[in-house]
Amino acid sequence: MDDLETVLLDYDDDSGIGTLTMNRPDSLNALNGQLSRDIVEGLRRLEERNEDADGVALRAVVLEGAGEKAFCAGADIGGFSSDSAGGSSARSHYQFIVDFPAPVIAKIDGYCLGGGLETALACDFRLASEESTFGFPEVNLGLLPGAGGVQYVTKLAGPAVAKELAMFGDHVPAERAGELGIVNRVYPGDEFDDEVASFAEKLAGQAPLAVQGIKKSARVAVETGLEEGLRYDREQFSTLLNTEDFEEGAAAFSEKRDPEFEGR
Ligand code: COA
Asked: Is 118 an annotated catalytic residue?
């Protein structure tokens, strides 16, 4: 499972949590085509855990950056013209994360810039240490964020915030990113690992088919109109009513115990 060049993979059988570590610490995990492809391949391999499972084995993925300094410092500037996040081959991982059925948590400890921030924005949750910083430095190179950064931040925090970030290229501290709604949670550094672990564990214990449906519903809400979104939710609700997970949830409620969901 662990032979990819630029990512490290881990999977915990008990919790169903996969961890994918972007592993180019010498360049602050800058995104080149190889890293982008390895993120996709790593997620595919984690998803293979579902193939022989009776239900949903992969409940959540934590995406993090290796080293002490960065989640990801954006596109690899050295290889920009050919094989970087600016090139088409490197774009694939953003959409793959958006389409990925299990929720993906961006665990951000350090620089989260450019394509790194866009990678985090493609994830379902962004959890940051207090020491982290966020920004779109592309404008300093005469570029704009090429993988939807302005689009995503506009939807999360409004156009004025998106334009300020992308036009000035300044770094924003984690606390401010949290206030703006770009980041879900900000934790002190000494609590960060434990807090992220308990966030992921709680998420992994939720009914997995419902979680997948909610992920898709939020995406439909962003990408389409209200009518289509309501139709999706109604259909998904009916589908979930016929799952074993719903039976288990209802039984656990009446028996006053915690449910154990299998994703069936
Ligand atoms: N692409 C390629 N290499 C990068 C990189 C990137 N986006 N970001 C950092 N690196 C490399 C540096 O070149 C340096 O390599 P070296 O040790 O061989 O010189 C190493 O990572 C460490 O970075 P350094 O600049 O020494 O760390 P710092 O703490 O002084 O500064 C940043 C950190 C993130 C502020 C700074 O590296 C930076 O501005 N990076 C570019 C960010 C960017 O513009 N990203 C968007 C590109 S579109």
From this structure: yes
Q: Yes or no: say if 29 and 72 are a contact pair by the CB < 8 Å rule.
A: yes
Question: Domain range holding 83?
Answer: 7-204
The tally of domains found in the chain comes to 2
Clarify whether residues 92 and 177 are in a common domain: yes
Amino acid at 219: R
Convert the pLDDT of each residue in 102-113 to its tens digit. Answer: 999 999 999 999
Please tell me whether residues 20 and 97 are part of one structural domain: yes
Contact 138, 120 (CB under 8 A): no
pLDDT digits (tens, 9 = 90+) for 193-226: 999 999 999 999 999 999 999 999 999 999 999 9
CB 139 less than 6 A from any atom of ligand 1: no
Residue burial 64-89, b: 16+ Cβ < 10 Å; e: rest: bbbbeebbbbbbbbebbeebbbbbee
Q: Atom 11 in ligand 1: which residue has the minimum CA distance?
A: 27
Cα end-to-end distance, the chain, whole Å: 26
Q: What is the CATH number of the domain that holds 216?
A: 1.10.12
Q: Find, among 107, 73, 258, the residue nearest to 185 by Cα.
A: 107
Q: Is 199 in the pocket of ligand 1 (CB under 6 A)?
A: no
Task: Answer whether 197 contacts ligand 1 (Cβ < 6 A).
Answer: no
